[in-house]
């Protein structure tokens, strides 16, 4: 505890100093090739039994839809090469180990939403071994967090290269009350308390800041059960996080929501300010929501901003 | 009128100048002989003063005689261990041939050997040689005249101007007549002088004070009562004993209270002064962390008179809980310490506290930017004195003035702290001038002791709320501790026993949203050290060091990830509320024995310390053999070496049940060795060069590995004994002390060359997350390498100069090599979608460093002495030339570029202190 407190003291000092230092590249400002979000539909697969039966393996081998939100504002529609692997070790961020990886898809696309039907639960690595089994073997927690298979998307455009790793979760009912996760979906966004429709760009003018909020999501945050490390049932409640992005200016916070270890949840309220000296232009906004257990989706909004 | 020549030494005054330092400086802590006492409690005590056996009269310089000039030559005499005069230096030239005459005479003096802490030792004394000229003697009166001569009495008290200390051992006389009666002031500074009535040209001569002269009209058969305020020569109080305590360790560095309070850049914080010594790496920002010879924070034990201080700094990294006013001195052992010490694999800091004044009430009040405090000391009755200090912050009342105020949010930060120290001494007779005298007064056996209490209380409340805040946030912490200790020292002949029992209470309270923790701990411990001098060549010490702690915690918190369940990356879910009561007792005991064996010029100190710990179901045993060797090459040069094993138990709370503790933790261990040489260049210049090599093993590392539970399931141990480390280096210390009250300059140069490695055995565990401040992030399985705090070169220059007129100027310059970093080697982005974070790609581990650190701190003190009190004002400026030093390096969110976190800019602090 003492060391923790002492480290905490140093962190406080460091954080105080961070206020004086500002990197130019802000997370919420999208200006080059990025992967802003990845989701799978279903967000997780749950077998009906924890026995290794053909039926259970079939349930885990079901097809899911893989979606990746690719943005490339400066690319002017250039082609983006992509490769999607499944592999066994979450620490292998690039699925480099060929013996423990399976190619799920590859091709060329452009910025926007990349959609791929995949069957990661059926993927096999070297010696035709089921990747799911290799993931379990690599897992120090012996599957008590679910079998978390890394899906690694590599996208390349021009000289830019991004590896994006998402964990696909495969469950079985280890403890009573477990059920499959539902995809988190944001009900809507508001700007200065005015609803922000999906279809038509909003007219914004002036230097801001503009207050952007998400409609209340508390009734959509699920209560769920996971197995504890001592095989007990642990009850949890989702606390969604939203990551905020725009092609101009920046948000006051790049991420909102979530809960700290005292259970204090954040508000989904940010302030957007256009860049100083910018000219009138169309601006794209993204709000990517994560439920903290593998589920994710996003909203895209547009605005016509003038100084 | 013919002149009657008389050159005479002020023998009476000199004999008192040779008195124990307690008479010539601020009251000292009761100091038992080093044989049995915890060494750090002992200021060197002159147990037997030198006595002048052979005095030689100096010839009056003819020129001065012809011109009728008188003078007082103030000398520093170095008396060798055999009583011969080794050196004589005038502190300020008197000219006219007086200096040469006095020095030549004093060189022929012969003294009885002085003893310091019971051992014959060289000492320095201040000595005043008075050259006076007398008026011709009047014709001798008849016997009837003598009988009829009326008398007048002058009585009073001698008081130090500015501090109200009583001046003992001063001579008071009327005029220069050597045959005139004179009086000596007693321990209370009181004197009574019987002289013929009429005008008395009063002359008061006292060590460390300017010659006091005044005129008093004395009436026949009447008593005139006066108070004379004597002006200190420089600095209110100055010791005259220069001898060193016999060292029981290879390296012990001592910081006096004066140094602790006035070292620039430390805010007068005693613990931070330790950071200026060799072997201590620079801690980030203005943190007071002690990083000793490659050890990590928390591996150096800090004790107050032998009792561990549970929490060293207020508000984590604020001022230390050790009030500089209450300390007598600080002893710092960077390694190689004796078997009496344990429970540390790094160094030891021993804070020796201050014994209350024996003469009268003294005190001080200090105010600075953060807090205000007072110190009081006074005798209660003969043999009993009390000292007390307290301090309280008021930054909580100032913060609201500077915190931002927005309509949509409220922010409240309330940091508050206070601390106190009280010490009551008993058993020392004020009229006993030496240990032997005190023992003889007590019939051969003697008991002294004291009772001390100290404690601290910290509160920090932070509330942030409102619709425009990111979230409603509430943090409320409260920690406090109290310790009560006794100290009983018994001496009879060659036997010395020091018994130190203590009890303590620790409280912690923590609230963060729905998470709460209330903890309380009770401590009871005792330490007994027996010393027996079997012969002049053999001394044996043995003892016990026992402590029992019971800690209990009431906790209520949302189920924490990775303790209760496997967290999904980036998970921010809210866990169900868990309520637990945890209680645990632990015992740690040690039996130690060591001996000093003198063989010719060698002194061997073999020792062993056996440690036993019981915490919950854990049973740990560790045996620590140690050896220390010293070789007296010459009177001024000593070679020294040490090697040994050291053990440190894990804190009690780490033994709580899985998954929040690890009940199977073992002792942390270290092997320490050193080899060095110490040389006294002159009486005021010392140089010490010491090389060291340490290995740490079985150290606590967090987190530990993941293990399977017998009944199913897994758990990640929060701690394990996988920590290892290694350090080697060379330390150089050159110190210049003030030779006398008139010597204006003091300071030291401290240099350390070192390399320290740190890490763990085995692969990096899951969730190690150790990528802050240069950990093992980004280098795959690397778990052992340069310590994040490694600094190849650490140079510190500290200097203090007395400008005169109450002005003092001090400076501290530091240069250290930058800390290691692992450079980024970005070729592509690595995005963790679930966590919404980027991973970095790195070059070789710790293959780069931040730029070197350099900083100059300056402190200016000004004091005004009034009749009975002194006002002091100081300005302490950190980073005077505003160097932009790099404290940390962090990366941008995509791990593409590195950014440097700067250290503190120029920071002036002003403080005021009044003392009486």
TrEMBL record, chain A:
Keyword presence, Signal: yes
Domain of life: Bacteria
PROSITE patterns to which the protein is assigned, alphabetical: PROKAR_LIPOPROTEIN (PS51257)
Signal sequence coordinates: 1-19
Sorted UniProt keywords: Signal
Name of the protein in question: Lipoprotein
UniProtKB/TrEMBL annotation, chain B:
One cellular component term from this protein's GO annotations in UniProt: cell outer membrane
Keywords, in A-Z order: Cell outer membrane, Membrane, Signal, Transmembrane, Transmembrane beta strand, Transmembrane helix, Transport
Lineage: Bacteria, Pseudomonadati, Myxococcota, Myxococcia, Myxococcales
Record-level GO BP terms: siderophore transmembrane transport
Gene Ontology terms for molecular function: siderophore uptake transmembrane transporter activity
Subcellular location: Cell outer membrane; Membrane
Signal peptide segment: 1-24
Protein name according to UniProt: TonB family protein
PROSITE patterns given in the database record: TONB_CTD
Main localization of the protein described in the UniProt heading: membrane
